[in-house]
Sequence to fold (431 residues):
Amino acid sequence: MALKVPGPRGRWFVGELPEYEADRVGWLVRTRAEYGDVVRLAPNAVVVHDIEFARLVLGGTNDDYLLDSAPLAGRRRQDALRGRVPEWMRLRGLVSRACRAFLTPLGVEHLVRVHDAELRAHRGGDLVVAGREICGRGIVRLALTDDDPGAVEEITRAARRAFEESLTSLERNEPRLRWLPRPASRRAAESVRELQELLAVQVQRRRPAAGEVRCLLDAVLVEGVDDQTAAAAVRMLVFSAQGVPGAALSWVFARLAEHPGAARVVADETRGVSLGAALADGALPETDAFVREVLRLHPPQWMIARTTTEPVVVGEHLVPRGCQVLISPYLLHRDARWWDEPERFRPRRWVSGDVTRKAFLPFGGGPRTCPGLRLALIQLQALTALLAGGHAVELMSGGSGAVRAGGLLLPEGLTGCWHEPVLPRNGDGCA
Ligand code: HEM
Fold:
């Protein structure tokens, strides 16, 4: 017989949520040690720490689980959410195919040029903000071409606003507030609509010649889709590329500065190499290893949520219908059961093959795995190679040890700069 999920008694209605909110990672580590791999967080939320269970939950998404984190939603709303799944899956299929079609050696060469220019246009300061701007504008430039810089700026601003407002609504837990006003969610929905309208104008303007793929929008249009679907696909793409890759880049800055030896290995691998062709071929194992190790220790989406649509058994425990199931890549990636020296930054583990790939979930898993995975990896590898090969990164404050685990995993108070070491420097370190 399946058992009830164990966990601290907590308070009426809210369970352990106040304790969890006060120190999220600390609460997870503590209760895992005390209660095991399936722990109750609140009456309608459990956390799963076992990799096999986590894979089963992610694999059952769109079926026993919905992605939406609305455990308080009634059956009618869950049915409505489920009804929207086929259309969403079609759109995300379009996004992955467009990314694949765009990432030819020529496309990756273009990606490298765009990100090189973005790095040169920034010099540092708040490295979380810098990371967000470089990656966010970088993807919009790849989505639309550089023919109309005004449109790129306007759409970058709109995409950033839409992403930040959606994150705010998530951080306030608004998707779960069924009966209360949801101002942040309303603002987010409005911003997403505005972004879609701006993109619809671009779709109408752009008519590539047959087979021409100069940008990601062209790659969507070669699929022969109607204008509205094309605008929705590009919206999905530029929206998703706003906060998460930028968060990853801020950790890359921190680790490049803290591990000059590992940065040198990347610089040596990429010296004299045509970056576009090598990245498109997957021919830079050391650079790839550096990026994977950053994503292992600092997965920007450090917590992934699902909601059960039926009662399910996880291990030996019964999880009721309408319950939120939380999986933390951050904890899984630092679990000594699957990783040697889990807390150590050791990129070479990826080159020597000393890794448990099934326990590596920075892009989620199952049918809702990140469809931008390859684009994201190539973008981060390009930025890592450009920084390691042509710049010195220096930190002014913060580092990889200071963590803010909110809607995204971000380094706390990370500031610094990067500069070309061959040029005469303005004083010592960051000017
Ligand atoms: C370092 C960069 C990135 C990381 C770490 C990342 C990670 C993730 C994760 C963890 C999810 C949730 C998966 C799940 O729930 O199982 C996700 C979803 C998604 N990502 Fe990414 N992502 C990154 C970059 C991108 C980029 C550049 C795109 C643009 C194409 C993108 C598009 C999406 C979309 C559309 C979804 C929603 C998928 C769905 O709900 O079906 N991501 N990503």
Observations:
- The CA atoms of residues 32 and 360 lie 19 Å apart.
- The domain at 3-419 is CATH 1.10.630.10 (Cytochrome p450).
